[in-house]
Amino acid sequence: MGSAVDKRAAHADPATNEAMLTYLADRPEPDQSPLRQRAVDVICVVVSAALPVGFWIALATGHTEVEEPLQWVDLIMATLCAPLVWWRRRWPTTISVVVSVLATVATLASIAQGITLLTVAVHRRPRAVFFAAAVFVATGAIYNVVRPSPDVPYWVTFLMVNLLAAGLVAWGSFIKARRALIASLRDRARRAEEEQHRRVEQARQLERTRIAREMHDVLAHRISLLSLHAGALEFRPDAPPDEIARAAGVIRTSAHQALQELRDVIGVLRADGGEAERDRPQPTLGDLPALVTEARRAGATIDLDVRVDDPDTVPDIVGRTAYRVVQEGLTNARKHARGAAVRVTVSGDRGEGLTVEVRNWLPLRSAVVTGSADQIPGTGTGIIGLGERVGLAGGRLEHGPSTAGDFRLTAWLPWD
């Protein structure tokens, strides 16, 4: 039965499965309420005592008489069996066997005997169920010998006892299987809900990590420009007024853009990664000239060579990743090779992939030593984050000194 239900659930509509699991998760477990258990126990005891109590009332009112001593035994045994039903949950097999033995000479105890066997079938394993059913059939056979029916053959009554026992066991097994199925579906619903919560939290964490990486890439570029121009003003306090004004304008513009981009990112973090991040325009390959122009205004010597026929056909994720590679390369060049010429090359075609290369000459050791005091600070994790970004795009990232004496940052990105 469980496999059939699982097959139907597998082919059902996902919304229907979700609604069913939600219903089962909220539905109370069977037999979990003590009040409900006590109510069912009271009903079972009352039903079991209905026949003997009715017989006692008939005797008291004179509507019937006891014709033979065996009827007194029947009445007394049935009266004893009724309260035993109350403890059938605690000792199902024992109570069922005791009631069956007492019912050997008690016709009025048949209801209690059936209830206790049904309880064993619901709550116990097959071995205990088989044992209780065997005692039920054996005591029924003995009863038909002790008190045979004059109108029905023995084999018919024996067959009826077997069919009754089989029906009770089948009914109890059905209830047991149904409860197990509901419990498994309820557990599945709980696990699915927990898994959904984990996926939501993981998605939020990944989104926040991506935004933090975006913040590093953007602000590192802007702040490096600020540091470079501020250092130039500090180094040349006697510069012409127009140069000082131009440098101050670049500092003001870079600071304004950095604050604006920081405000956007913080707004996304406060909104838990909502629509604001997707609505904010992201840089693409077509924005490289503007990036290089901005760096040139800061005094950097940059040679840009874009060998792509139509940059607009480059996928957004590839163009955005290429932009970040160039941005990180220019930022690192300003940090570690100030004043060195930088060459940026972007080439590729559909099917071959996009190659982005940023090269700059390594500074002399003396320049590194003399310039260490005003070195632009950094966390040293920009290349690591860039490698993760390129890896997520399905590409490869290489960096390090080359044999020609320059530093080379190269990324290959798939372009299908």
From TrEMBL:
The record's Pfam families line, in alphabetical order, gives: HisKA_3
Q: Name one GO molecular function term.
A: kinase activity
What this protein catalyses is: ATP + protein L-histidine = ADP + protein N-phospho-L-histidine
Q: Gene3D superfamilies per the record?
A: 1.20.5.1930, Histidine kinase-like ATPase, C-terminal domain
Keywords for the protein's UniProt record, in alphabetical order: ATP-binding, Coiled coil, Kinase, Membrane, Nucleotide-binding, Phosphoprotein, Transferase, Transmembrane, Transmembrane helix, Two-component regulatory system
What residue ranges are annotated as transmembrane? Answer: 39-60, 72-89, 95-121, 128-146, 152-174
Residues in a coiled coil are 175-209
Q: Where is the Signal transduction histidine kinase subgroup 3 dimerisation and phosphoacceptor domain?
A: 207-272
This protein's source sits in the domain of life called Bacteria
Q: What is its EC number?
A: 2.7.13.3
Broadest EC class? transferase
Query: Does ATP-binding count among this protein's keywords?
Result: yes
Please report the name of this protein according to its UniProt entry: histidine kinase
